């Protein structure tokens, strides 16, 4: 599967300029910028590839004559596999080198960690049971949302929400501003005012979850609840003919994703991939 490039030329150019606002002083001072060269990116350790398309385009924007991308985002690369190869002036290769390398390293870390959770969740499903969706939060480093989305998608996950403007997620921090007597009425109003949106309500426990379901919430998001609590809620909601979904958030990772899937969670909400270690990329640059 091919993923669309999420970072446009303006963004990629801005990243290059951040690293070299006035050009590459070393390459220019050595007088080697116009000499023909070749640059190769290799996987140092296995990973899920991410932002390969962005890195390829970045190298082209830096002035490379030809860039051959051997691995696409979402592909699995083993240790030592060639990811991409670029030909062009040494000045262009050196200009793009570190920024493109770092982009692929950090994105691969997120993608690889996401895939681990996706696979763990699938392993906890019984016969005929659909695997939960692994949805990453908007708790990425500010300014890197597009990179986060590209990496999460490459790892087989999805974004929980890209921003406050697109989804209805009622937190306890919202309900704190409402009197107990008006909470159900306000939630029903939210559902009426945005009928095309699925309403998610995050709750700290069992009783609050039942109240939210009775008020019309379509997704009950349990915060920091163990798998056994999720299983108990799933059973209670099924008895009440609840047609919505159960999501779990807080502390979800590859070690417990299978247990949450087995307990009946349909959505696993996590920030864990954003804190995964980058996956190293080895770079070779030589005359051609």
Automatic annotation (TrEMBL):
<comment type="similarity">
    <text>Belongs to the NadC/ModD family.</text>
</comment>
<dbReference type="InterPro" id="IPR037128">
    <property type="entry name" value="Quinolinate_PRibosylTase_N_sf"/>
</dbReference>
<dbReference type="InterPro" id="IPR013785">
    <property type="entry name" value="Aldolase_TIM"/>
</dbReference>
<feature type="domain" description="Quinolinate phosphoribosyl transferase N-terminal">
    <location>
        <begin position="24"/>
        <end position="107"/>
    </location>
</feature>
<dbReference type="InterPro" id="IPR006242">
    <property type="entry name" value="ModD"/>
</dbReference>
<dbReference type="InterPro" id="IPR002638">
    <property type="entry name" value="Quinolinate_PRibosylTrfase_C"/>
</dbReference>
<keyword id="KW-0808">Transferase</keyword>
<dbReference type="Pfam" id="PF01729">
    <property type="entry name" value="QRPTase_C"/>
</dbReference>
<dbReference type="InterPro" id="IPR036068">
    <property type="entry name" value="Nicotinate_pribotase-like_C"/>
</dbReference>
<protein>
    <recommendedName>
        <fullName>Putative pyrophosphorylase ModD</fullName>
    </recommendedName>
</protein>
<dbReference type="InterPro" id="IPR022412">
    <property type="entry name" value="Quinolinate_PRibosylTrfase_N"/>
</dbReference>
<feature type="domain" description="Quinolinate phosphoribosyl transferase C-terminal">
    <location>
        <begin position="110"/>
        <end position="283"/>
    </location>
</feature>
<dbReference type="InterPro" id="IPR027277">
    <property type="entry name" value="NadC/ModD"/>
</dbReference>
<dbReference type="Pfam" id="PF02749">
    <property type="entry name" value="QRPTase_N"/>
</dbReference>
<keyword id="KW-0328">Glycosyltransferase</keyword>
């Amino acid at each position: 599967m091919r993923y669309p490039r999420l970072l446009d030329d303006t963004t990629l150019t801005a990243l290059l300029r951040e690293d070299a606002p006035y050009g590459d002083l070393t390459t220019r001072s050595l007088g080697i910028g116009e000499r023909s060269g070749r640059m190769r990116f290799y996987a140092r350790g296995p990973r899920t590839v991410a932002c390969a398309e962005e890195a390829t385009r970045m190298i082209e924007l830096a002035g490379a004559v030809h860039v051959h991308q051997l691995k696409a985002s979402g592909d699995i690369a083993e240790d030592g596999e060639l990811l991409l190869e670029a030909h062009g002036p040494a000045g262009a290769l050196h200009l793009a080198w570190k920024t493109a390398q770092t982009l692929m390293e950090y994105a691969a870390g997120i993608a690889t960690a996401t895939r681990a959770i996706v696979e763990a969740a699938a392993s906890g499903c019984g016969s005929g049971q659909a695997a939960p969706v692994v949805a990453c939060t908007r708790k990425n480093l500010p300014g890197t949302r597009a990179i986060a989305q590209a990496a999460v998608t490459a790892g087989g996950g999805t974004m929980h929400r890209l921003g406050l403007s697109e989804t209805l997620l009622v937190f306890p921090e919202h309900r704190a501003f409402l009197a107990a007597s008006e909470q159900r009425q306000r939630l029903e109003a939210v559902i009426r005012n945005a009928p095309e949106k699925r309403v998610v309500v995050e709750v700290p426990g069992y009783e609050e979850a039942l109240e939210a379901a009775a008020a019309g919430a379509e997704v009950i998001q349990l915060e920091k609840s163990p798998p056994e609590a999720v299983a108990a809620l799933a059973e209670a909601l099924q008895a009440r003919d609840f047609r919505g979904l159960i999501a779990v958030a807080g502390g979800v990772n590859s070690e417990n994703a299978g247990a949450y899937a087995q307990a009946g969670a349909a959505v696993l909400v996590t920030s864990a991939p954003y804190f995964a270690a980058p996956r190293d990329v080895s770079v070779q640059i030589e005359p051609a």
